[in-house]
Amino acid sequence: MKAAAEKTAAAKDVTGAGKTVKTAAKTRQTAVKAPQAVQAQAPGKSVKAVKQPVAKDGKDEKPRRAKKDKVVRDSFTMPKSDYEKIAELKQRCLDAGVSVKKSELLRAGLALLAAVPPKRLIAAVSALDTVKTGRPAKS
Length: 139
What we know:
The protein has 139 residues and is mostly helical. The chain has five helices and two strands. The chain has a two-stranded antiparallel ribbon.
C-alpha cells in the first residue's frame, strides 16, 4: 500500500516556469501494459490465431486508405433543354430505385464518353449547338 502511495506521490506533476513537467515515474507507469484477459475455451477445441499484417521491420502494419481525389467546384453554361434532360435522367434513376445527384449524372456521362472511340466522341461533340459562355442576361 505504501509503494502505491509513493508511486502516486512521485507521479504528481511538477510545475515550473509556467510549464507542466511530468516525472519519469509517471511515464514508466504508463509504459507497463496490463495483461490481456484470457478467454476460457472448451476442452478439445483449438482456437485459431488471427494473423495481423506485419511490416518488414517487424512492426504491425495498419491497412492504408486510398487517397481521395480533391473535389473541384466549377460552373458552366448549358441550354435549358439540356438542363431538363438532367431532370429527366434523375427521374428515370428514381423510378429504377436509385437516388442520384446532378454531379453524379454528369460524372457517369463523362465515364461513358471516355469509353467510346475518338471518332464517336468527336461526332457527339460536333452534334451539340454552341452556347455563349457566361451568365445569362437578367430579364
